[in-house]
Every structure is written in structure tokens, then in C-alpha cells.
Design a protein that fits this description.
2 helices; mainly beta; six-stranded mixed beta sheet
Length: about 160
């Protein structure tokens, strides 16, 4: 691009970015306005389930997306108990070999739609998922295969963790 063309483009950009623009036959300022996210806005998320398996879409609040945690557990030991925070999270369990026992205590008062996901690279012979407070777990899991994963989403209206995967 020649120097003269660069100067012309820079001049046009300067005019567009700083000067008034013609809108509806009148000159008006065209500065964009932005509304900050408050955290309660809901975002639709595709579950990726095939063949119409429900739910096809789940909703997460902006606060849930901000709080999303990936927790790596390298060198996990048998018999340990892990308390999942109210924001839920994605856990990746990795150990040197088969784990005889492992416990996860789910949150007492999570937000509606909170997700708990667990991936295990090893066999877990006795897996215990404990619901916090008076909550319950639908279709709980008692063991995991190597390279297996499970996922639950919380429904605040029913107080139930529903299995998604």
C-alpha cells in the first residue's frame, strides 16, 4: 500500500471513530454503549447429546461460567474424600493404579444448573457420591471404569442432582 493510500485510510478511520455520523438524516454521536454483566444472565449451552436424548440444552448463569473450575487430581490416593465447592467443577482423577475407594461430597446449596463432572483415568472400585444437605442424587454411580466420566447437574426446584452422563 502506498503512503498516500495509508494516509487516506487513516483519515477516514479518524473521521469515523471521532466525528458525528449521519443516522436517520441527522448527525448523532455513534458511540457504543455497553451494559456490564451482572452475573444472573443465563447462557444456553448445548449438551451435545445425540439422537434427541434430553436435555439438549442446559442454561448456566454468567456467575457459574466465571466460577467454573477444573481441578486436576494427579497422584490421587485411595480412601480420600473430596468436598466439591458450591460452584461445582470439572474434576480429573489420575492415580498410579486402581483406586479401591474414593468419595466426593457434593455442595449443600449450589445454584440451579451447577455442574459436577468427574473424569477418571483409572478404575475406581468403590465410588461414593454424597449429596450435601437434604439434596438427593438421581441415578448415582458406585464405580468407574478407566477413562470413564460422569456428569451431574443440580436442579434447585427439586433439590436433585440429575445425571447427564
Amino acid at each position: 500500500m502506498k503512503l498516500r493510500e495509508i494516509a487516506r485510510v487513516a483519515g477516514v478511520l479518524s473521521l469515523l471513530l471521532s466525528g458525528p455520523a449521519l443516522a436517520g438524516g441527522q448527525f448523532t454521536d455513534q458511540l457504543p454503549t455497553y451494559t456490564p454483566l451482572l452475573g444472573s444472565e443465563k447462557l444456553p449451552l448445548d449438551t451435545g447429546f445425540s439422537q434427541g436424548r434430553q436435555p439438549q440444552t442446559i442454561y448456566a448463569t454468567v456467575n457459574q461460567m466465571r466460577a467454573l473450575k477444573l481441578v486436576a487430581e494427579p497422584g490421587a490416593v485411595t480412601g480420600a474424600s473430596v468436598t466439591v465447592p458450591a460452584t461445582g467443577g470439572y474434576y480429573s482423577l489420575d492415580a498410579a493404579g486402581t483406586l479401591a475407594a474414593r468419595t466426593y461430597v457434593l455442595p449443600t446449596s449450589p445454584e440451579n444448573g451447577t455442574v459436577f463432572h468427574l473424569f477418571s483415568s483409572v478404575i475406581v472400585t468403590a465410588l461414593t457420591l454424597t449429596p450435601g444437605g437434604t439434596n438427593t442424587i438421581n441415578d448415582t454411580v458406585t464405580a468407574m471404569t478407566a477413562n470413564g466420566s460422569i456428569e451431574f447437574a443440580y436442579n434447585a426446584a427439586t433439590g436433585i442432582w440429575y445425571r447427564l452422563q
